[in-house]
Write a structure and sequence with these properties.
about 240 residues; seven-stranded antiparallel β-sheet; 12 strands
Protein backbone atom coordinates (compact mmCIF):
# COMPACT_ATOMS: atom_id res chain seq x y z
CA UNK A 1 0.00 0.00 0.00
CA UNK A 2 2.79 2.41 0.90
CA UNK A 3 4.64 1.48 -2.32
CA UNK A 4 1.55 2.27 -4.34
CA UNK A 5 1.27 5.74 -2.72
CA UNK A 6 4.96 6.46 -3.35
CA UNK A 7 4.64 5.32 -6.96
CA UNK A 8 1.53 7.44 -7.39
CA UNK A 9 3.41 10.44 -5.99
CA UNK A 10 6.28 9.86 -8.39
CA UNK A 11 3.86 9.65 -11.33
CA UNK A 12 2.20 12.90 -10.30
CA UNK A 13 5.57 14.62 -9.83
CA UNK A 14 6.74 13.46 -13.24
CA UNK A 15 3.54 14.68 -14.81
CA UNK A 16 4.00 18.09 -13.22
CA UNK A 17 7.61 18.24 -14.42
CA UNK A 18 6.63 17.29 -17.97
CA UNK A 19 3.94 19.95 -17.99
CA UNK A 20 6.38 22.52 -16.68
CA UNK A 21 8.97 21.50 -19.28
CA UNK A 22 6.42 21.73 -22.07
CA UNK A 23 5.40 25.20 -20.88
CA UNK A 24 9.05 26.21 -20.70
CA UNK A 25 9.62 25.07 -24.28
CA UNK A 26 6.55 26.92 -25.46
CA UNK A 27 7.66 30.03 -23.62
CA UNK A 28 11.14 29.67 -25.09
CA UNK A 29 9.68 29.32 -28.57
CA UNK A 30 7.47 32.35 -27.99
CA UNK A 31 10.39 34.36 -26.66
CA UNK A 32 12.56 33.29 -29.58
CA UNK A 33 9.81 34.18 -32.04
CA UNK A 34 9.36 37.60 -30.45
CA UNK A 35 13.09 38.18 -30.49
CA UNK A 36 13.25 37.14 -34.17
CA UNK A 37 10.36 39.43 -35.01
CA UNK A 38 11.99 42.28 -33.10
CA UNK A 39 15.30 41.79 -34.93
CA UNK A 40 13.53 41.60 -38.28
CA UNK A 41 11.57 44.74 -37.46
CA UNK A 42 14.74 46.52 -36.44
CA UNK A 43 16.48 45.50 -39.68
CA UNK A 44 13.50 46.71 -41.72
CA UNK A 45 13.49 50.03 -39.86
CA UNK A 46 17.24 50.40 -40.43
CA UNK A 47 16.80 49.62 -44.14
CA UNK A 48 13.98 52.16 -44.46
CA UNK A 49 16.01 54.81 -42.62
CA UNK A 50 19.00 54.09 -44.87
CA UNK A 51 16.81 54.39 -47.95
CA UNK A 52 15.33 57.69 -46.75
CA UNK A 53 18.80 59.01 -45.92
CA UNK A 54 20.05 57.99 -49.36
CA UNK A 55 17.07 59.67 -51.02
CA UNK A 56 17.67 62.86 -49.00
CA UNK A 57 21.34 62.85 -50.04
CA UNK A 58 20.41 62.34 -53.71
CA UNK A 59 17.84 65.14 -53.48
CA UNK A 60 20.36 67.47 -51.85
CA UNK A 61 23.02 66.61 -54.43
CA UNK A 62 20.48 67.15 -57.20
CA UNK A 63 19.53 70.54 -55.80
CA UNK A 64 23.18 71.55 -55.48
CA UNK A 65 23.85 70.48 -59.08
CA UNK A 66 20.81 72.42 -60.29
CA UNK A 67 21.96 75.51 -58.40
CA UNK A 68 25.45 75.20 -59.91
CA UNK A 69 24.01 74.82 -63.42
CA UNK A 70 21.67 77.75 -62.87
CA UNK A 71 24.58 79.87 -61.62
CA UNK A 72 26.60 78.97 -64.70
CA UNK A 73 23.67 79.85 -66.95
CA UNK A 74 23.16 83.23 -65.30
CA UNK A 75 26.84 84.18 -65.38
CA UNK A 76 27.49 86.53 -68.33
CA UNK A 77 29.98 85.46 -70.99
CA UNK A 78 32.86 87.92 -70.90
CA UNK A 79 35.23 86.47 -73.52
CA UNK A 80 35.05 84.87 -76.96
CA UNK A 81 36.94 84.91 -80.27
CA UNK A 82 36.02 88.58 -80.77
CA UNK A 83 37.62 89.88 -77.57
CA UNK A 84 36.79 90.18 -73.90
CA UNK A 85 35.11 92.34 -71.29
CA UNK A 86 37.35 93.43 -68.43
CA UNK A 87 36.21 95.87 -65.75
CA UNK A 88 33.12 96.59 -67.85
CA UNK A 89 35.05 97.51 -71.02
CA UNK A 90 34.99 95.34 -74.15
CA UNK A 91 38.20 95.40 -76.17
CA UNK A 92 38.44 93.67 -79.53
CA UNK A 93 40.94 90.85 -79.92
CA UNK A 94 43.22 92.97 -82.12
CA UNK A 95 42.88 95.89 -79.71
CA UNK A 96 41.68 98.19 -82.51
CA UNK A 97 38.45 99.30 -80.86
CA UNK A 98 36.61 99.30 -77.54
CA UNK A 99 33.12 99.88 -76.17
CA UNK A 100 31.53 99.80 -72.73
CA UNK A 101 28.31 97.72 -72.86
CA UNK A 102 25.63 97.92 -70.17
CA UNK A 103 26.64 96.22 -66.93
CA UNK A 104 25.85 92.50 -66.73
CA UNK A 105 25.36 92.04 -70.48
CA UNK A 106 26.84 88.96 -72.08
CA UNK A 107 28.91 88.33 -75.20
CA UNK A 108 27.43 85.98 -77.75
CA UNK A 109 29.29 82.66 -77.77
CA UNK A 110 30.01 82.91 -81.50
CA UNK A 111 31.49 85.72 -83.54
CA UNK A 112 34.72 87.52 -84.25
CA UNK A 113 35.78 91.12 -83.93
CA UNK A 114 34.16 92.07 -87.26
CA UNK A 115 30.68 91.46 -85.78
CA UNK A 116 30.21 91.35 -82.02
CA UNK A 117 26.83 90.78 -80.38
CA UNK A 118 26.28 91.60 -76.69
CA UNK A 119 22.90 90.75 -75.15
CA UNK A 120 21.00 91.76 -72.03
CA UNK A 121 20.33 89.21 -69.25
CA UNK A 122 16.70 88.79 -70.35
CA UNK A 123 17.71 88.34 -74.01
CA UNK A 124 15.31 91.04 -75.20
CA UNK A 125 17.88 93.75 -75.90
CA UNK A 126 21.20 93.62 -77.69
CA UNK A 127 24.13 95.69 -78.80
CA UNK A 128 25.99 94.91 -82.03
CA UNK A 129 29.37 96.25 -83.09
CA UNK A 130 30.49 96.03 -86.72
CA UNK A 131 34.10 96.63 -87.70
CA UNK A 132 35.53 96.32 -91.22
CA UNK A 133 38.91 97.51 -92.45
CA UNK A 134 40.22 97.30 -96.00
CA UNK A 135 38.61 97.03 -99.42
CA UNK A 136 35.36 95.64 -97.99
CA UNK A 137 34.78 98.58 -95.67
CA UNK A 138 32.98 100.79 -98.18
CA UNK A 139 30.60 97.98 -99.17
CA UNK A 140 29.83 97.09 -95.54
CA UNK A 141 28.42 100.48 -94.64
CA UNK A 142 25.14 102.24 -95.26
CA UNK A 143 25.49 105.67 -96.83
CA UNK A 144 23.17 108.02 -94.95
CA UNK A 145 21.61 111.09 -96.58
CA UNK A 146 22.39 114.47 -95.09
CA UNK A 147 18.93 115.11 -93.63
CA UNK A 148 16.41 113.15 -91.59
CA UNK A 149 13.57 113.91 -94.04
CA UNK A 150 15.53 112.34 -96.86
CA UNK A 151 16.25 109.26 -94.79
CA UNK A 152 12.60 108.87 -93.77
CA UNK A 153 11.75 108.28 -97.41
CA UNK A 154 14.24 105.42 -97.62
CA UNK A 155 13.37 103.29 -94.60
CA UNK A 156 10.40 101.70 -92.92
CA UNK A 157 10.72 100.10 -89.50
CA UNK A 158 7.14 99.33 -88.59
CA UNK A 159 4.25 101.47 -87.45
CA UNK A 160 4.43 104.92 -85.87
CA UNK A 161 8.12 105.32 -86.63
CA UNK A 162 9.55 108.46 -85.06
CA UNK A 163 13.10 109.79 -84.99
CA UNK A 164 14.58 110.67 -81.63
CA UNK A 165 17.67 112.17 -83.25
CA UNK A 166 19.44 112.28 -86.59
CA UNK A 167 22.97 113.61 -87.00
CA UNK A 168 25.01 112.92 -90.15
CA UNK A 169 28.20 114.66 -91.27
CA UNK A 170 29.78 114.10 -94.68
CA UNK A 171 33.31 114.96 -95.79
CA UNK A 172 34.48 115.80 -99.27
CA UNK A 173 36.60 112.64 -99.51
CA UNK A 174 33.60 110.38 -98.87
CA UNK A 175 34.14 109.94 -95.13
CA UNK A 176 31.08 110.08 -92.92
CA UNK A 177 30.08 110.13 -89.26
CA UNK A 178 26.55 109.27 -88.24
CA UNK A 179 24.30 108.85 -85.26
CA UNK A 180 20.55 108.49 -85.06
CA UNK A 181 17.85 106.89 -82.93
CA UNK A 182 14.21 106.05 -83.52
CA UNK A 183 11.19 104.30 -82.04
CA UNK A 184 8.73 102.11 -83.91
CA UNK A 185 6.15 99.37 -83.33
CA UNK A 186 5.98 95.81 -84.57
CA UNK A 187 2.99 93.45 -84.24
CA UNK A 188 5.14 90.83 -82.50
CA UNK A 189 7.23 92.92 -80.11
CA UNK A 190 5.37 96.18 -79.65
CA UNK A 191 7.49 99.30 -79.24
CA UNK A 192 11.14 98.99 -80.11
CA UNK A 193 14.00 101.43 -79.79
CA UNK A 194 16.89 101.45 -82.25
CA UNK A 195 20.02 103.59 -82.07
CA UNK A 196 23.24 103.53 -84.09
CA UNK A 197 26.49 105.46 -84.06
CA UNK A 198 29.60 105.09 -86.19
CA UNK A 199 31.92 106.35 -88.88
CA UNK A 200 33.55 105.58 -92.20
CA UNK A 201 37.05 106.81 -92.90
CA UNK A 202 37.68 106.88 -96.64
CA UNK A 203 41.43 107.50 -96.24
CA UNK A 204 42.09 104.45 -94.02
CA UNK A 205 39.19 102.43 -95.44
CA UNK A 206 37.83 101.75 -91.98
CA UNK A 207 34.18 101.35 -91.02
CA UNK A 208 32.90 100.94 -87.48
CA UNK A 209 29.46 101.17 -85.93
CA UNK A 210 27.62 100.20 -82.78
CA UNK A 211 23.88 99.63 -82.88
CA UNK A 212 21.47 98.91 -80.04
CA UNK A 213 18.05 97.33 -80.38
CA UNK A 214 15.69 97.41 -77.39
CA UNK A 215 12.46 95.46 -76.97
CA UNK A 216 12.09 95.61 -73.17
CA UNK A 217 9.91 98.27 -71.59
CA UNK A 218 12.54 99.51 -69.13
CA UNK A 219 13.32 103.08 -70.17
CA UNK A 220 16.61 102.86 -68.30
CA UNK A 221 17.96 100.52 -70.97
CA UNK A 222 17.74 103.33 -73.55
CA UNK A 223 20.09 105.42 -71.44
CA UNK A 224 22.46 102.46 -71.10
CA UNK A 225 22.51 101.93 -74.86
CA UNK A 226 23.14 105.61 -75.52
CA UNK A 227 26.00 105.57 -73.00
CA UNK A 228 27.47 102.51 -74.75
CA UNK A 229 27.34 104.29 -78.12
CA UNK A 230 29.12 107.27 -76.57
CA UNK A 231 31.92 104.97 -75.44
CA UNK A 232 32.63 103.42 -78.86
CA UNK A 233 36.22 104.25 -79.74
CA UNK A 234 38.76 103.33 -82.40
CA UNK A 235 42.29 102.89 -81.01
Amino acid sequence: MRKNKIFAGIVIAMAVMMTATACGKNNTKADTKQETQAVAGSEETTAVNAEVTGTDQETQEGEETSEEEETKETQPITANDAGDIKEGLFTSKSGKYEIMPPKGWSLDEDGDESVVAITSPNGEDYLEVTYVQGEDADGAREVYPATMDEYKKLISRGEDMEFVRYDVKNSSDGSQTFRYALRYKTPQDGVRYYAISGSYNAATKTYISAAGTIASTDSGVEEQIEAALDSLKLK
